[in-house]
Amino acid sequence: MCTLEKRGRVYLLTLTGDGEHRLNPTLLNAIRSALARVRSDSARAGGGSALVTAAEGKYFSNGFDLAWAKSSPANRTTIMTSAFQHVVADLMTLPMPTIAAVTGHASAAGFALALIHDYVVMRRDRGFLYMSELDIEIPIAEFVMALFRSKIADPRVRRDVLLRAPKITAAEAERKGIIERAVGGAAEAVETAVRMGEELAEKNWNGEVYASIRNAAFPEVCRALELAEEGDEETKRLASKL
């Protein structure tokens, strides 16, 4: 489902296989487990780390596993959304810089998974970002809407992403400020993201402070994830040490 390796100071989390990396509870729990290992290992190492998330194959992630959700009369969509919300919260509170290396198509929740990272690098030669909910007639969860409102500042760009449902190339996404950089192919996207991660990790920032400032920078996302109160308490705790 996913692998975790260490490249210098950078943790590289890779969604494995050549499938669509549909986000069902099995994959989401695997991602959460990997992030927990990153959190634990970096705490023992004393900080100075970064995370890069990438994927193998044609897709970065094609969003929720709708086939899995429809395979049971139980409300599996709610279960899947809740599991994804936990992953988003984990990334929002991870005590280090995070970078998504979008190595293929990123649709719907896959787009949101990339956007929750602090930085996004995307391959230029193929792949697109796509919020498909309008086309497939599925409402967008409030915490995902909060994420898009917070990360895509230009209301016209945000309107078009959500209400026109275009398939956005890397070059267009870079031009519109949705991503940081568009680079050659998948390997270059990963290499660029890892290099960026190394540069950020070398700053040796305090991870708890980094996460606290991230939360303060995106309060609407924290409120939607019910992290605001926790973040406020962490800020107070850290301030008491100064």
Automatic annotation (TrEMBL):
GO molecular function: delta(3)-delta(2)-enoyl-CoA isomerase activity
Catalytic activity: a (3E)-enoyl-CoA = a 4-saturated (2E)-enoyl-CoA; a (3Z)-enoyl-CoA = a 4-saturated (2E)-enoyl-CoA
Involved pathway(s): Lipid metabolism; fatty acid beta-oxidation
Alphabetic keyword roster: Isomerase, Lipid metabolism
Transmembrane recorded as keyword: no
Entries under InterPro entries matching the protein: ClpP/crotonase-like_dom_sf (IPR029045), Enoyl-CoA_hydra/iso (IPR001753)
GO aspect biological process, one term: fatty acid beta-oxidation
Keyword Isomerase included in the entry's annotation: yes
GO cellular component: peroxisome
EC number: 5.3.3.8
Family of the protein in this entry: Belongs to the enoyl-CoA hydratase/isomerase family.
UniProt protein name: Delta(3)-Delta(2)-enoyl-CoA isomerase
Source species of the chain: Phoenix dactylifera (Date palm)
Taxonomic lineage: Eukaryota, Viridiplantae, Streptophyta, Embryophyta, Tracheophyta
